[in-house]
Model the fold of this input.
Amino acid sequence: MRLNGRVAIVTGAASGIGRATAQLFAQEGAQVLAVDLAGKGIAEAHKDQQHVATLEKSVADADAAEAIVDGAVKRFGKLDILMNNAGVASNALAELMAIEDWDRTFAVNVRAPFLLCQRAIPHLKSSAAGRIVNVASVMAEGTNFGLSAYCASKAGVAGLTRTLALELGKFKITANYLLPGAIRTGMTSPLWDARPDIADIWANKAALRRLGQPEDLAKAALFLASDDGAFVTGQGLTVDGGLMLRV
Ligand SMILES: NC(=O)c1ccc[n+]([C@@H]2O[C@H](COP(=O)([O-])OP(=O)(O)OC[C@H]3O[C@@H](n4cnc5c(N)ncnc54)[C@H](O)[C@@H]3O)[C@@H](O)[C@H]2O)c1
Done:
């Protein structure tokens, strides 16, 4: 019970990494507010979880930070852990990228985590163990064709998180980010189910010769969110099975 008595928010929690993390946090004793878009089955995803409350909300809505952070505090009385996991990918060569796609990627991947952190800070200051865990990507450091908006946004998550760590350390709040590799989730499964050969390429590129599972990331998030990670701040934790070792 490494999160006994803690209150956590996990965004993008209807699927993949967010769903697995919300459930692991709850199993470890936390009360969790799990957030996702309307119509994504967030309530269904956690229907058997006694300690997971759910909220349908886009993190990109103008009132999202208020609705989510204040909603968690109203429901559970405090806030200890904020995990900004909701994210979107966009895929277009830079020359052809629609500005709407660029802006949507940044609205969800960078602007929303910033605003949620900003709204959460006063509550995290009151916590004995305030934690921010943001989800970036190995693409914060690497790149690929078509990923200009995604890579730039995830590099933004890294820079944002390191700065928060510096500013919030004196309040005993840690801020770290995860860099997932190739993980089988709602984001990747449609392509990998249709093209198992592509999934195999990603699996075989990793030193550990497999794709990541959402639980691999949930366990890393638990480390950063719990007392085990108390002296770790401003860091990116790569969880990719050794995908990025090879140049
Ligand atoms: N799967 C991978 O290989 C991989 C690799 C690197 C980074 N990531 C990152 O991991 C995070 C989680 O993604 P995942 O792989 O679990 O994918 P996923 O699609 O299974 O889960 C993402 C969830 O975020 C939700 N979401 C999207 N926009 C939202 C919004 N505006 N408001 C609220 N919720 C929203 C989606 O509905 C979805 O349920 C993302 O930030 C993603 O960029 C994933």
Q: What stands out?
A: The pocket of nicotinamide-adenine-dinucleotide is lined by residues 11-12, 14-18, 35-37, 40, 58-60, 85-88, 108, 135, 137, 180, 182-183, 185-188 (CB under 6 Å). The two ends are 40 Å apart (CA to CA). The chain is about 45% helix and 15% strand. The chain has a mean pLDDT of 98.
